[in-house]
């Protein structure tokens, strides 16, 4: 069975600081990996995903994540965060059958 | 185009009652998913439809929960004899149904069982 662990439930950072949100997964087969974001009072939105190919994937708003097969990780990073990045971030994994397993989420709070 | 919609946005019911939650997927999406999100947790998979049939219902917690998608579009999640522990946000998502496809989520239905 596949599972996802997000190691930090809350991450407070100051504006313009770098941030890393950690995600580890367990699966005996190849997986697809996703990061979703939930802004306050909004629904879940895809941030970025890894299917195959280059292990580094990027989003349009400056986030990136690197798939590390040997460490079974898919950590999310941003070199300089903005107040508007304050949200809940969820790491998720699927295998061929498409049902998605989510981590418990990391609440990122960016302070001025 | 229109995204995934869910109705009602909020539902308050009494313990023991029956409830139905509706999901309208994005037009043309063959796959539809139901999740449950409790406070402080990530979404928990319940059931996945490919077309009209349930391809995977392994996440339904017990036989009080049932979902249908009779025409391969709109889906209804049905909960019988509701319990206080059923209180959560119920999320619906849809996708084209190909492996690795992005799932597009609706705003959710907040169910409160008193």
Helix count from the secondary structure assignment of chain B: 0
CATH superfamily of chain A: Immunoglobulins
User: Roughly how many Å is the radius of gyration of chain B?
Assistant: 13 Å
Biggest sheet layout of chain B: 7 strands, mixed
Taken together, the total number of domains of chain A comes to 1
Oligomeric status: heterodimer
- Through-space gap between termini of chain B: 37 Å
Largest sheet of chain A: 6 strands, mixed
Q: Order of helices and strands of chain B, N to C?
A: EEEEEEEEEEE
The Rg value of chain A, from CA coordinates, equals 13 Å
How would you portray this structure in words?
The complex is a heterodimer of chains A (112) and B (114). Chain A has one domain: Sandwich (Immunoglobulin-like), CATH 2.60.40. Helix content of chain A is 0%, strand content 53%. Chain A is built from no helices and twelve strands. Chain A is globular and about 40 Å long. Chain B is mostly beta strands. Chain B has one domain: Immunoglobulins (Immunoglobulin-like), CATH 2.60.40. In chain B, strands 2, 4, 5, 6, 9, 10 and 11 form a seven-stranded mixed β-sheet that branches. Chain B has a four-stranded antiparallel β-sheet with strand order 1-3-8-7, with no helix packed on it. Chain B starts with a strand and ends with a strand. Classes of the chains: A mainly beta (112), B mainly beta (114). At the A-B interface, strand 5, strand 6, strand 10 and strand 11 of A face strand 4, strand 5, strand 9 and strand 10 of B.
């Amino acid at each position: 069975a596949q599972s996802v662990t997000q190691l930090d439930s809350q991450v407070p950072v100051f504006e313009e600081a770098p941030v890393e949100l950690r995600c580890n997964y367990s699966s005996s087969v190849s997986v697809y990996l996703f990061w979703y974001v939930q802004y306050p009072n909004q629904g879940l939105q895809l941030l970025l995903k890894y299917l195959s190919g280059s292990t580094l994937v990027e989003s349009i708003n400056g986030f990136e994540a690197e798939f590390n097969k040997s460490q079974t990780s898919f950590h999310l990073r941003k070199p300089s965060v903005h107040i508007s990045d304050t949200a809940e971030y969820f790491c998720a994994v699927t295998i061929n059958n498409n049902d998605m397993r989510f981590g418990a989420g990391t609440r990122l709070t960016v302070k001025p | 185009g229109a995204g995934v919609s869910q109705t009602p946005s909020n539902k308050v019911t009494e313990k023991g009652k029956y409830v139905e939650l509706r999901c309208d997927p994005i037009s043309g999406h063959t796959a539809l998913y139901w999740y449950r999100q409790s406070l402080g947790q990530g979404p928990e998979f319940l059931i996945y439809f490919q077309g009209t049939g349930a391809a995977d219902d392994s996440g339904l917690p017990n036989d009080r929960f049932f979902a249908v998608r009779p025409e391969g579009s709109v889906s209804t999640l049905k909960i019988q004899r509701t319990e206080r522990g059923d209180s959560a946000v119920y999320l619906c998502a849809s996708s084209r149904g190909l492996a690795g496809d992005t799932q597009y989520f609706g705003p959710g239905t907040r169910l409160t069982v008193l």
